[in-house]
Amino acid sequence: MATNITWHESLRRSERETLRGQRGYTIWFTGLSASGKSTIATALEQHLLHLGVGAYRLDGDNVRFGLNKDLGFSEADRNENIRRIAEVAKLFADASTATLTSFISPYKADRKIARDLHATVADGDEPIPFIEVYVDIPIEVAEQRDPKGLYKKARAGIIKDFTGISAPYEAPEAPEIHIRSDKVSVEDAVVQIVEYLKSKNLLPAAALKN
């Protein structure tokens, strides 16, 4: 850990939320490759923006082109990948942005670290809402979709440590939202998430009028 550094206080999150007129939170999509995480997250981001909600999506592949381009797919690298994303998501949410992350994030322990991080805030501020969305799909259906051909390569041994084939996926036990992406449309999945946000008073009043 770096030394000789000092934490500099800024505006409180509650002040930012009042000034921006919206609350910040993280919606954490998790699920197998080809489960539909990115597709649903993209549609949700577009919907929130059309409602006038400041939203931003962090995509698993995209982040590995920049911030995490030094990481591979070993368990240790996957752990670090999720740790970094959790930190970035918290920063976005702290800035009163609806933050969407779409990562396989296969390990329960890593997702717990992300959740706990959002609960660690400055004195006087409430924990940042962390909404785990489990995009659930039978692996057989995911393999049938396989838009990137990754399952085929994993079965052939070309890709090592592939989640669901040669590496584990630990499904969430109590996610805030559970979506069976083989049974509902993308549009219905977005509606399901938006209704949850409404129920938790996480959408600004102006968005509810649209």
Description of the structure:
GO terms for molecular function: adenylylsulfate kinase activity; ATP binding. It comes from Pseudogymnoascus verrucosus. This protein has 210 residues and is α/β, with parallel strands linked by helices. The radius of gyration is 18 Å and the shape is globular. It has helices at residues 13-20, 37-50, 60-63, 75-94, 108-119, 139-145, 150-155, 186-199, 205-208, and strands at 25-30, 55-59, 98-102, 130-136, 177-180. It is 42% helix and 13% strand. It contains 9 helices and 5 strands. The chain has a single domain (23-208), classed as Rossmann fold. Strands 2-3-1-4-5 form a 5-stranded parallel beta sheet, with helices on both faces. The longest helix is centred in the middle third of the chain and has 20 residues, at 75-94.
Features:
alpha/beta; 42% helix; 5-stranded parallel β-sheet; 210 residues; Rossmann fold
What topology does this entry show?
Elements: H1 13-20, E1 25-30, H2 37-50, E2 55-59, H3 60-63, H4 75-94, E3 98-102, H5 108-119, E4 130-136, H6 139-145, H7 150-155, E5 177-180, H8 186-199, H9 205-208
Parallel strand pairs: 1-3, 1-4, 2-3, 4-5
Q: What strand order characterises the main sheet?
A: 2-3-1-4-5
How many individual helices?
9
Helix content: 40-55%
What's the CATH class, please? Alpha Beta
Helix-strand sequence? HEHEHHEHEHHEHH
Determine the mean pLDDT.
Answer: 90
| Poorly predicted residue ranges | none
Strand content: 5-15%
Enzyme class: transferase
GO molecular function, one term: ATP binding
Catalytic activity: adenosine 5'-phosphosulfate + ATP = 3'-phosphoadenylyl sulfate + ADP + H(+)
Family: Belongs to the APS kinase family.
